[in-house]
Amino acid sequence: MGKARSMVKLFFLVIFLQILVPAHTATSKTSTEFIFQGFNGNQSELELEGDSTITPNGLLRLTDRDSDVAGTAFYDKPVRLLDNTNSTVGSFSTSFVFIIIPSSSNNGGFGFTFTLSPTPDRPDAETAQYLGLLNKEDDGDPDNHVFAVEFDTVQGYKDSTDRIGNHIGLNFNSLSSDVQEPVAYFDKEGHKEDFQLTSGEPIQVFIDYDGPTKTLTITVYPTRLGSRPTTPLISQRVPKLQEIVQEEMFVGFTAATGDKSSAHYVMGWSFSTGRVPAATLNLSELPAPPPNRAKKRRFNKEIISLIVSLTTVITIMLVLSFLLLIYKRRLNQEEILEDWELDHPHRFRYKELFNATDGFNDNRIIGSGGFGTVYKGSITTTDDDDQIAVKKITPNSIQGVREFVAEIESLGRLRHKNLVNLQGWCKHGNDLLLIYDYIPNGSLDSLLYSKPRLCGAVLTWNARFQIAKGIASGLLYLHEEWEKIVIHRDVKPSNVLIDDQMNPRLGDFGLARLYERGSLSHTTVVVGTIGYMAPELTRNGNSSSASDVFAFGVLLLEIVSGRKPTDSGSFFLADWVMEMHAGGGGVLRAVDSRLGSGYDEGEARLALAVGLLCCHPKRGSRPAMRMVLRYLNGDEDVPEVEVYSHSSSRYSVPSDLKEPLKGDISSDALLQKN
Ligand SMILES: *[C@@H]1O[C@H](CO)[C@@H](O)[C@H](O)[C@H]1NC(C)=O
Ligand SMILES: *[C@@H]1O[C@H](CO)[C@@H](O)[C@H](O)[C@H]1NC(C)=O
Ligand SMILES: *[C@@H]1O[C@H](CO)[C@@H](O)[C@H](O)[C@H]1NC(C)=O
C-alpha cells in the first residue's frame, strides 16, 4: 500500500515536472540570440523581401545597383524586447559588418537601416529617401512602431536636395532623424576620424541598448582598424523607444536606391537580447567581400576611355595649335587686303618686305625716330640686289590711312634727284610700311655733327654748298614744279639723306600731314620740329610753303655754321647770325670754325644772307624757293638783309613744349606728349 502511494507520488512528480518543463521552455523563448557568420544556407532563417537576396558566396545583399529598388531582410522569428515583469524595453545588442558599393565614386544612394519593426517585412515602403522603411503617407505616424538606425548616404530628405550625405541617424516612426551624426570613429588618442560609408570597404557596427539606463550606444568603424574603438560615436538616452516597442518585434535591415544607387551588403550579423553583448563576429570567417570587379571594370573602362579621350583631345589640340601657329605665321606674311588696297600699283607685298628685312630683324634697323623705325632691306630680283629702306610706322589712328595711302600713291609719283624716291607702301594690320630707295651715306645731321664718316674730315665747304642747293632744288620741286603743291612740314638735317654722289635727298615729305589729319584732328597741335618751326606755326599751326622756307633758312644757317638751331637756353641760331650780320665783326664769324679757312667767302656770305632772309619772322618777307635757288645759284643778287630779331617779334615756343627743347625733338615726340 505504501508502495502504491509512493508510485502515485512519483506520478504526480512526473506530471508536475512535465508541466514544469514546458513552462521552462516558454520562459526561455523570451530571449533571443543568433549569429550569422555569413548567410550561406540561412535562407529559411530570414524573411527576404523586394530586392534582397543571399548571394552564392553567402552575402546578404539588400539592394543591387539598380535605380529605385528597395529590399528588406528580417530575422524570421519575432523577438521579445519587453521585460516580462514590468513591460519596459530590455537591453539588447547587435553587431554587423556591411559594405556599400556605389555605382560611381560620387554618386551612391540612398542608404540602409537597422530596424525594429512589428512586421518581418515593410509592405508599401518606398524607395530612395524612404529607405524601404516607410512611405510618404505613413512617415511620422506613431502607429508605425518602427525604430531605425539609418546609414544615410544622400543628404536632404524632405527638400529632396540630393547632396552627398554620410551620416547615422536615429529614427522613431519617421525618416526625420531625432539624432544625427556624421560618420566617424574615435581613434586611440580620442581624435574623431571621418570616413565614408560608400568607400566600398567592410564597416562594422555595434548597437547596444541598455535597458536600465535607456541608453543607446552606436560604434561604427572600418574593419581594417582591427579592433573596436572604445568610445562610441553615439551614446544617447532614448526613452522614446518605450513607445515604439511592442510585445513582439522583428529585427532586420531595409535598404533602397533612387536615382542614385549603391549595392548594400551585410556580410555577417549577430544579435542578442539581455545584457550579454551579441556574439563576436569572427571576421576571418565572414564570406569574402562582394566582388567589386563589375564596378572596377566599369571604373577602369571609364578611366581608360577618359585617358583615350583626353589623349585624343590633347593630340587634336596640339595639331590645331600647330596649324594655328603655321597659319598665324602665314598671316603675318600674307596680308588680308581690303578692296581699295587692290588697285594701288605701288603696293608691296608684306611677305616680300618681311623676307627682305629678315623678318624686321633688329640688326636691320638703320634709323628710328621721326615717324617710325627704318629697316634696311634687300630685294633680290632676277638680275640684281635692290637695296631698300623700309619705314615702319604705326599711325595713331587708322582712320586716316586710306586717305593717306591715296596721298602716298601720288607722292610715289614724285620724281626728283633731290628727293628720296618713295617706291611704294604696304599696309599690314595697324602698321603702315613705306618703301624708299636706300640712301647709303646716312642723314645730313650725322654728317654735320657726328664723327665724319667720309674722308675722315669735317664736311667740306663745297659739299655743304652743294647740299644746300640740292635741298633748295628739291623743295622748289615740291612747292612749285609738281602738279600739286606739296608742303614738306618737317625740313631738318635728319630728314636729308646724302647719297654716294654727296647729293642731298629730302625724305619724309608730306608725312606730317597724316598726323595732322589722323588722331589729332580735334586739337591744333603744331607738327614739326622745335627750332625749325616758323613763328606763325606756333601761333596758328598753319603750314605753308613759307613755313617750309623758314625751316630751310634755319637748315641753311646750320649747314654753314655747324650749330644746332637752338640750345637749352634762349639761343636761337637765326638771331645769333643776325647779331654777327648787324654787328661790326662781320657775318663770317658765324661760319663753322672747324672749316678754318677752307671755305669760299663769297659763297658763305651768300648762304648766310639767304638763310637770314628765309628766317624772317614775317612770312611775307621770306623769298619763295624759286628765288632762294636763284640767289644760291648766283642768278639773282641777294637783297639787303634788314635787321630783325625773333625775340622782339616774340618768337617763342609753346610753354608746354619748352621742356623737350634739348636736342632734336621730332614731331613724334610732340605727338606723344598729347
Ligand atoms: C545558418 O545556417 C547554417 C547552416 O545551415 C546553420 O548551421 C546555422 O545555425 C544557421 N544560423 C542561424 C542563426 O540560424
Ligand atoms: C524592470 O525589471 C528589470 C528586471 O526584471 C529591471 O532591470 C528594470 O530596472 C525594471 N524597470 C523598471 C522601470 O522598473
Ligand atoms: C576565427 O576564425 C579563424 C579561422 O576559422 C580561426 O583560426 C580563429 O581562431 C577564429 N578567431 C576567433 C577569435 O575565434
TrEMBL record:
Its EC number is 2.7.11.1. Coiled coil: none annotated. Residues 645-668 are annotated as: Disordered. InterPro entries: ConA-like_dom_sf, Kinase-like_dom_sf, L-type_Lectin-RKs, Legume_lectin_dom, Prot_kinase_dom, Protein_kinase_ATP_BS, Ser/Thr_kinase_AS. It is found in: Cell membrane. Residues 1-25 form the signal peptide. SMART domains: S_TKc. Residues 360-674 form the Protein kinase domain. CDD domains: lectin_legume_LecRK_Arcelin_ConA, STKc_IRAK. One of its GO terms (molecular function) is protein serine/threonine kinase activity. Residues 645-655 have a biased composition (Low complexity). The chain crosses the membrane at residues 303-327. The keyword Metal-binding does not apply. Keywords: ATP-binding, Cell membrane, Kinase, Lectin, Membrane, Nucleotide-binding, Receptor, Serine/threonine-protein kinase, Signal, Transferase, Transmembrane, Transmembrane helix. It catalyses: L-threonyl-[protein] + ATP = O-phospho-L-threonyl-[protein] + ADP + H(+); L-seryl-[protein] + ATP = O-phospho-L-seryl-[protein] + ADP + H(+). GO terms for cellular component: plasma membrane. It is a single-pass type I membrane protein. Its main location: membrane. In the C-terminal section; belongs to the protein kinase superfamily. Ser/Thr protein kinase family. This is non-specific serine/threonine protein kinase.
